[in-house]
Structure to design on (73 residues):
């Protein structure tokens, strides 16, 4: 089984050409919510996204300051 923990094109279905024909996509591949809900139970993926969003909002000033060091010319 192969897992892809995050899929940035969601809600579009995973359709990577490199995987087609190599795997039985229905039975050998778990993408994003399928993967996390498989590991943590129903709702685990939604919980993770919520956690990342809340922490991102909380740490936004620190993250912005960090990247400002590299964006100055």
């Amino acid at each position: 089984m192969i897992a892809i923990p995050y899929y940035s094109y969601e809600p579009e279905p995973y359709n990577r050409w490199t995987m087609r024909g190599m795997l039985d996509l229905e039975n050998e591949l778990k993408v994003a919510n399928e993967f996390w809900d498989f590991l943590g139970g129903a709702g685990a993926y939604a919980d993770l996204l919520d956690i990342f969003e809340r922490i991102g909002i909380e740490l936004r000033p620190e993250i912005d300051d960090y990247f400002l060091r590299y964006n100055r010319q």
Notes: The chain has one domain: 2-71. Residues 64 and 70 are 10 Å apart (CA to CA).
